[in-house]
DNA sequence: CGGCTCGGAGTATAAACAAC
DNA sequence: TTGTTTATACTCCGAGCCGC
């Protein structure tokens, strides 16, 4: 929490709270929740009306309560069929058990009180990684022996030897269609002065000086959505089921993927200065790019999985705003535990990888539609503004891949440390099994994602630019029907959460 | 005094586990 | 199958703090 500045509150433990006769509401509004105060069922609620906060009075999405599912370390599940995991010498560290008491007190260098926030809960009590193929050794040391962290960074300084380079700091926020923040990258703190958790479940516009800027873009996004679905009268309004939990259960790199058919909008957003922060955080003016995310399977061209649609918002400090000195420190804190080998640090300079030229973020995506496909994660990263893309298997991409992994240790894919067929560069090839097409369950075919034919759209040229709010050309490459789940444990968790019946049947 | 923050009591919910 | 235990998240009471 906010550093409870002064003294420990002298609370009297003997004080017995009397039972209140008033029943609690099922869901307190955002403001009342934050204030720990009583709410009511009306929206805006009575308290918000009385304090003039009706505009920000809305229901927040609850997380799942209750005891988390137990996940045995080596689930003998036909979904996964772990190969030869009984040989611990061959596979030294497939999972890292961590009792709650031994969980590191800091994650990514942040105070435990911040990063262990319940709001960021990740389910798995164990760390299980495994290759999806038989001959894919796990890069165990590359993985953090720590609980999955909700933290992620989109900008990362790359230390190669003594040099340190990085592009402009970029904040990424994954939003629901209603523009509620699902997940924000760690740059939030640096750029806006808010902890990522501060944004969770909040409407983004709440942090803006002029919310109408954002609403304008939202309208354009929705207009483009309607444009897509207009051909299909069955689909009326966007009804996304995507929640913050989806954002937390999916790799940021995956979430960054643009939905097939999405346009990208650029605008400038002025953020309110964060209250209660030490003085440096003045309101920032940010260049924002917004597009529909396809990382959860939504496709605006084939109109599939539209309920998995969400919005990606990337933010960099506006160049035209007052020059902002780049911080010298590496952004955030080491994402790689210090005791781990410097594999991820040996990649060449990533200067300008995240640079933000006039390039279109909406171009190029992995063109994979099969169920089990090698996906180059860099390709999904290539949806980032300014990402330089060459051939999917190029050295450059592989380097980017590595960078991605360095940035997202938790989501680090299982990788082949020894056998990289094409290059000596650290090659990370993700063999992802499309989760929804469960190969072993012939009977229970999970819903609607098998998606065999890619969208027949042409590829659009990549050279178009933005005006203040300008629609980019629709992204035309066929998108993956589903995405990379680099971590089987993660995948299992996701499967079980998403399709309890099916997975139970399989078991 | 009113508003704000926040510790924590009481409660709801869900999974694991035990008993039948 | 049902009841109990355990683990987590939720609401909101009530106390301290602060500015007016
Ligand atoms: Zn309320
Ligand atoms: Zn309210």
From TrEMBL:
Q: What is this protein called?
A: Zn(2)-C6 fungal-type domain-containing protein
Keyword terms: Metal-binding, Nucleus
Origin superkingdom: Eukaryota
SUPFAM superfamilies, per database record: Zn2/Cys6 DNA-binding domain
Q: Where is the composition biased (Polar residues)?
A: 1-15
Which CDD domains has this protein been placed in? GAL4 (cd00067)
Locate the Zn(2)-C6 fungal-type domain: which residues? 28-57
Locate the compositionally biased regions of type Low complexity: 432-454
Output the Gene Ontology terms for molecular function. Answer: DNA-binding transcription factor activity, RNA polymerase II-specific; zinc ion binding
Question: Known PANTHER family for this protein?
Answer: ZN(II)2CYS6 TRANSCRIPTION FACTOR (EUROFUNG), ZN(II)2CYS6 TRANSCRIPTION FACTOR (EUROFUNG)-RELATED
InterPro entries recorded for this chain?
A: ERT1_acuK_gluconeogen_tf, Zn2-C6_fun-type_DNA-bd_sf, Zn2Cys6_DnaBD
Region annotation (Disordered) maps to: 1-24, 432-462
> Is the Nuclease keyword given for this protein?
no
């Amino acid at each position: 929490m906010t550093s409870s500045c002064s003294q420990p509150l002298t609370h009297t433990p003997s004080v017995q709270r009397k039972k209140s006769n008033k029943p609690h509401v099922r869901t307190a509004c955002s403001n009342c929740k934050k204030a720990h105060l009583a709410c009511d069922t009306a929206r805006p609620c009575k308290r918000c009306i009385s304090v003039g906060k009706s505009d920000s009075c809305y229901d927040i999405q609850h997380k799942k309560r209750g005891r988390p599912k137990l996940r045995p370390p080596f689930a003998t599940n036909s979904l996964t069929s772990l190969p030869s995991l009984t040989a611990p010498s061959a596979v030294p560290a497939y999972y890292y058990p961590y009792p709650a008491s031994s969980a590191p007190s800091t994650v990514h260098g942040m105070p435990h009180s911040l990063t262990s926030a319940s709001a960021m809960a990740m389910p798995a009590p164990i760390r299980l990684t495994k290759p999806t193929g038989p001959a894919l050794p796990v890069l165990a040391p590359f993985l953090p022996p720590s609980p999955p962290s909700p933290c992620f960074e989109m900008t990362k300084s790359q230390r190669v030897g003594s040099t340190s380079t990085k592009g402009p700091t970029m904040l990424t926020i994954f939003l629901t269609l209603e523009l509620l923040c699902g997940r924000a990258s760690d740059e939030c703190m640096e750029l806006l002065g808010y902890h990522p958790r501060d944004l969770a479940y909040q409407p983004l516009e709440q942090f803006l000086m002029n919310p109408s800027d954002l609403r304008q873009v939202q309208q354009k996004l929705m207009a483009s959505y309607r444009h897509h679905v207009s051909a299909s009268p069955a689909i009326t309004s966007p009804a996304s089921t995507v929640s913050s939990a989806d954002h937390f259960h999916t790799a940021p790199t995956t979430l960054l993927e643009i939905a097939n058919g999405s346009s990208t909008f650029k605008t400038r957003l002025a953020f309110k200065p964060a209250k209660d922060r030490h003085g440096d955080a003045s309101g920032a003016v940010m260049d924002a790019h917004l597009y529909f995310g396809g990382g959860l399977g939504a496709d605006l061209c084939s109109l599939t999985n539209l309920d998995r649609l969400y919005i990606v918002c990337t933010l960099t400090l506006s160049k035209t705003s007052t020059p902002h000195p780049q911080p010298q420190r590496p952004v955030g804190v080491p994402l790689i535990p210090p005791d781990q080998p410097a594999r991820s640090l040996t990649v060449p300079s990533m200067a300008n990888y995240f640079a933000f030229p006039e390039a279109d973020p909406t171009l190029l995506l992995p063109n994979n539609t099969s169920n089990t496909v090698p996906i180059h994660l860099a390709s999904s990263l290539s949806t980032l503004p300014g990402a330089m893309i060459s051939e999917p298997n190029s050295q450059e991409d592989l380097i980017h891949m590595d960078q991605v992994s360095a940035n997202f240790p938790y989501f680090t894919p299982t990788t082949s440390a020894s056998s990289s067929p094409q290059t000596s560069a650290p090659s990370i090839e993700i063999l992802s099994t499309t989760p929804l097409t469960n190969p072993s369950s012939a009977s229970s075919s999970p819903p609607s994602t098998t998606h065999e034919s890619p969208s027949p759209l042409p590829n659009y040229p990549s050279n178009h630019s933005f005006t203040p709010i300008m629609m980019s050309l629709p992204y035309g490459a066929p998108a993956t029907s589903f995405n990379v789940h680099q971590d089987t444990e993660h995948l299992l968790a996701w499967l079980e959460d998403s399709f309890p019946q099916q997975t139970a049947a399989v078991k």
